[in-house]
Amino acid sequence: MYYIGLDVHKKTISYCIKDASGQVYREGTIGAARNELDVWIQTLPLPRMMAMEATIFTGWIYDHLLPHAEQVKVAHPLMLRAIAAAKKKNDRIDAGKIADCLRCDFLPECHMASTEIRDRRRTLRYRHLLVRQMVQMKNRVSGLLLETGVSHNKQRLHKVGYFRELLSSEEVHENIRPLLRLSRETIVRCQRTEYALVSSLERDPLLAERIKRLRTVPGVGIITALTWALEIGDVARFRSVKQAISYCGLCGEEKSSADKVLRTPLSKQRNKHIQHVLVEAAKLAPRQNHELALIREREMQKGNRNRATLAVARKMVAYLLAVDRREREFVPAEVCSTVAA
């Protein structure tokens, strides 16, 4: 077996090929383009395994190389301490160390979602970008009105009729009207695009049934369900609820040494997209489910609102994981007890 380590960059890929004994078979640099990869693959010895560090460029390279190797693995960048802590560091050495980690089975492998899930996840994350841009433009509209001293109703500002009346009023200065119109057009365009993206994902045959089941969980709407399905991917990779909670960033870090223990409120090693969505959903879910309301009330008695929200979010992760594993709709505890009786 030959072990190939790849150090991936935007324009080039450094590689190192080693045999089972650790001897360097070949190393060099190729261009980060599909045609150059095709030519390079033809020169590689068989059988072979490949590994690379997770970067923004990893996805398409992984998909391109997967049919041409026994295995293609992606390493977690934060776990590759051997490279980060090295005194001498360059692309050739990095590729060699990745090959050694692969050869010795020390590679900190991270999960690589299927191409179909990654394509749809890219669409969902683009939707998040549009939402952020809409919020920025709405804040900019408010800022323009405040700068020029125009009195307005903050709650109704972005309603179509009210905004039209405000724009035609004499109080609005002529020099900001073009900017207000441009901002409004941008907001409307982003809203229509965002709606189209969410609708296309909701109707997607790959996701439709799963989304329908997930939405039966209290507090889970279309965005929360889509985010869970596309960011989590295959739930079989989580052996326990605790692992799923850790991945969602709903627990703290622990750094202990001797008799010193340091715990942080929330870990920074998490999937930030699903963390944000679950925390927001957990603020509304207790209104729709008695069990979640009890969890929140119990934590609120300890005097910390944020910890109460996190406790609800952790319980929601358990619900979502159970629904996905059993492939059945969510049934509240009180309904289960009534049926059992």
Give the SSE layout.
Blueprint (H helix, E strand, L loop, with lengths): L1 E7 L3 E7 L5 E8 L2 H8 L6 E6 L4 H8 L5 E5 L5 H4 L6 H13 L11 H33 L12 H9 L8 H26 L5 H7 L7 H11 L8 H7 L6 E4 L2 E4 L8 H13 L5 H11 L4 H22 L6 H8 L1
Parallel strand pairs: 1-4, 4-5
Antiparallel strand pairs: 1-2, 2-3, 6-7
Helix pairs in contact: 5-7, 5-9, 8-9, 9-11, 11-13, 12-13
What is the N-to-C order of secondary-structure elements (H for helix, E for strand)? EEEHEHEHHHHHHHHEEHHHH
Radius of gyration: 26 Å
Residue-averaged pLDDT, rounded? Answer: 87
**How many separate helices?**
14
Question: Which structural class is indicated by helix and strand composition?
Answer: alpha/beta
- Overall strand count: 7
Instruction: Tell me the number of structural domains.
Output: 3
Distance between the terminal alpha carbons, to the nearest Å?
Answer: 61 Å
State the low-pLDDT regions, or none: none
Strand line-up of the largest beta sheet:
3-2-1-4-5
Beta fraction:
5-15%
Provide the helix percentage.
40-55%
Instruction: Please describe the biggest sheet, giving its number of strands, its sense, and whether it closes into a barrel.
Output: 5 strands, mixed
Please explain how this structure is put together.
This protein is an alpha/beta fold and 341 residues long. The relative contact order is 0.07. It folds into three domains: 2-103, ATPase, nucleotide binding domain (Nucleotidyltransferase, domain 5); 115-202; 208-340, no CATH class. It has helices at 34-41, 58-65, 81-84, 91-103, 115-147, 160-168, 177-202, 208-214, 222-232, 241-247, 272-284, 290-300, 305-326, 333-340, and strands at 2-8, 12-18, 24-31, 48-53, 71-75, 254-257, 260-263. A five-stranded mixed β-sheet has the order 3-2-1-4-5. The protein contains 14 helices and seven strands.
